[in-house]
Amino acid sequence: MRAWQVTRHGEPSDVLELVQLPVPAPGPGQVLVRVAASACNFPDVLLCHGTYQERPPLPFTPGLEISGEVVATGQGAGAAAGDRVIGTPALPSGGYAEHVLLDTWYPWPDGMTPGQAAGLFITYQTGVCALHHRAGLRSGEVLLVHAAAGGVGSAAVQVGKAAGATVIGTAGGGDKCATARTLGADHVVDYRDTDVVAAVKEITGGHGADVVFDPV
Question: Count H helices, E strands: the chain?
């Protein structure tokens, strides 16, 4: 199979090399997935640079989230060939390859393209964990989301709205502010020309935000 591998640390355009590797065999509890799409996340860039919190040995294949179709299963895997799934391959054998092994997987949501499904897993998981498991966001609270047009920020806007919060998003520039509004933010503040603190106090009648989500 073909796979992109990092052979030395540096800029992704300089250090990623397309190579041929054997197709892995699934062990007990694992599934082998034919990759339909792999998402590109900022941690993938950091992995190439060698500055991420996890530093797999060289060479390695980056790619933290994928969508694809199960083509083989290990003993007791609880899946079947043909199942469409999303998941996070374990480094050093990441998702920038034609096939990956998954230890844990979830159903590919109906109606999503391969790219949409691949990009769902980490960003929305981060939003759910941060807002629900960590912050305990409740319906009726005010949620302030910085970088509301970015990958994780856009997920937080939607997760917050689904939880019943009033969402204030910050973004830089007209296009990004428009994106944040399209995603469902109730109020959007352009931090390039507006005092964010003053704007949030004005929007909330001096109450401020109950929860602040800052992915930057």
Answer: 6, 11
